[in-house]
Design a protein that fits this description.
The protein has 467 residues and is of the alpha/beta class. It has 16 helices and 13 strands. It folds into 2 domains: 93 residues, no CATH class; 253 residues, Aldolase class I (TIM Barrel). The strands form 2 sheets. The protein has a 10-stranded mixed β-sheet with strand order 1-2-3-4-5-6-7-8-9-10. A 3-stranded antiparallel β-sheet has the order 11-12-13, with no helix packed on it. GO terms for molecular function: 4 iron, 4 sulfur cluster binding. Keywords: 4Fe-4S, Iron, Iron-sulfur, Metal-binding.
Length: 467
């Protein structure tokens, strides 16, 4: 009998792993950490109770170079202070005001040095120095103090009616912290050698009355952004009264509180009287069916700490519907894909803050070193897609003068050589009610000149105009 043998089989080859290209961005969860403030020579003996006190934070804000030296000691060299002095005396559009909370997030974990401090992204926009700024084109020729023309659109002192259904209410002209790139640098903060600030002239009670009177007379307005300055600088009793008056107006359906202090001074929003007052407002808003939200302003993941997360979560726990972030794109701070994604994951995943908008830095004086061109913003929007949850993927917008916020891909024409983009709009601002051609016009926005090709830079040099 013949036995059939199974066919011979070749040995199975050892699998060889295919090479992987990897992802352009690799997510790694990074829990929030409160940096050790006692690493600074001037804060070696500051206790946790002091650090978590809003009063201590406000009293110990850094307002000048002498105070900065007292905190940093000899960890930063004299050349840095000379650089800062030059900027403060000739170029800065905002006076110095940095809460300890914010200073503590600069060079948070590495040894402090002049080089490390200069390179720090938060230092670059909170404590700018002269060597940061461009010398060829420090300002765009079309830069202006009120680049968005908010003051031109005041319908009452501090009340800007720019969009058909929304207004901006500037309750005051101060903040707990002053950002170098502030879009309201013509009004907010103390005057500097470079900028003599405008002043609010009405008493607060009269200003607030004027706002309420206008809103009652204009039922088409349903959305009020309550800002300044920063609402954290409004005495709580006054802010709560204003918000309750807004809630009495039947046509108001959205109220947004604008406060960078949720990040810069979270201790304020954790004070018992503020928490209790905000809860009263939130309950009233919920009862009336009004959406109450907080909008804060975080530009880099380093700024997010457990105290910031605690302040955000507390607001949500007591009934605020959303806490959202509106950042600003800035070169040297966050205008790269990894920086933006790191920030958005820290906001959404660790701090409970929804990434909402990133604005292109506005065309104010001495800001060209921060601004990015439209094409760069478009590329960033492309590159961050697909990583974050859809609801937490921020829109990158260009705030076009006389137009308003537009997604960066919404331009109608773009001259890349000269860095001029053209935009259209679909509504009239409060100063265009009689302009029959407002909706047919094209409105220009300008890229930083140093980002243009050589031919474009040469064109601007040949056609140089005064801003």
């Amino acid at each position: 009998m013949t036995t059939t043998q199974p066919p011979a089989t070749a040995a199975r080859p050892t699998p060889v792993a295919a090479p992987t290209a990897g992802q352009p961005y690799e997510y790694r969860r990074t829990p929030l950490v409160e940096p050790d403030w006692t690493r600074f020579p001037g804060w070696r003996h500051v206790t946790r109770d002091q650090w978590e006190s809003a009063q201590w934070q406000r009293v110990n804000c850094v307002k000048n170079i002498k105070q900065l030296r007292a905190v940093l000691g000899d960890t930063v060299g004299d050349n840095f202070y000379a650089d800062l002095t030059t900027d403060q005396h000739a170029l800065a559009t905002m006076s110095m005001l940095v809460p300890p909370q914010m200073l503590n997030t600069m060079v948070p974990f590495d040894p402090m040095s002049t080089e490390a401090f200069l390179a720090d992204p938060i230092r670059r926009y909170m404590i700018p120095v002269a060597s940061d700024r461009r010398t060829d084109w420090p300002s765009h020729p079309y830069a202006s103090r009120d680049s968005l023309h908010e003051h031109d659109m005041w319908v009452a002192e501090g009340l800007t009616h720019r969009y058909p259904t929304k207004v901006l209410a500037e309750l005051l002209a101060t903040c707990p912290q002053y950002c170098g790139h502030c879009t309201r640098m013509d009004l907010v903060g103390n005057s500097t050698p470079a900028v003599d600030k405008l002043k609010l002239t009405l008493k607060p009670v009269d200003r607030y009355d004027a706002h309420i009177t206008y809103l009652k007379a204009h039922p088409g307005v349903r959305d009020v952004v309550v800002s300044g300055g920063d609402v954290a600088n409004v005495p709580w009793r006054n802010l709560e009264s204003y918000l309750m008056r807004l809630l009495e107006i039947e046509t108001i359906r959205d109220i947004r509180l604008a406060t960078k202090a949720l990040m810069g001074l979270p201790q304020h929003w954790l004070q018992p009287d503020v928490v209790e007052g905000l809860e009263r407002v939130a309950r009233t808003a919920a009862r009336r069916g009004v959406n109450l939200a907080i909008h804060t302003h975080v530009n880099h993941a380093q700024s997010l700490t457990p105290l910031v997360a605690k302040a955000a979560q507390t607001a949500l726990d007591i009934g605020v519907r959303d806490v959202r972030n509106q950042g600003v794109l800035m070169r040297g701070v966050n205008a790269t894909t990894p920086d933006l994604l790191d920030l958005c994951f820290a906001l959404q995943g660790e701090a409970g803050i929804l990434p909402y908008y990133f604005y292109m830095c506005d065309m104010i004086p001495n800001a060209e070193h921060w601004r990015v061109p439209v094409w760069h913003a478009q590329q960033l929007q492309h590159d961050i897609m697909g990583y974050l949850p859809g609801y937490a993927t921020p829109r990158i917008v260009c705030d076009v003068p006389f137009v308003g916020k537009r997604w960066v891909h919404m331009l109608t024409e773009y001259d890349r050589e000269r860095g001029i983009s053209y935009w259209t709009k679909n509504y009239r601002t409060s100063i265009e009610q009689t302009d029959l051609e407002a909706l047919d016009k094209r409105y220009a926005y300008y890229d930083p000149i140093d980002t243009l090709p050589e031919s474009g830079q040469r064109w601007w040099t040949d056609h140089r105009v005064d801003g």
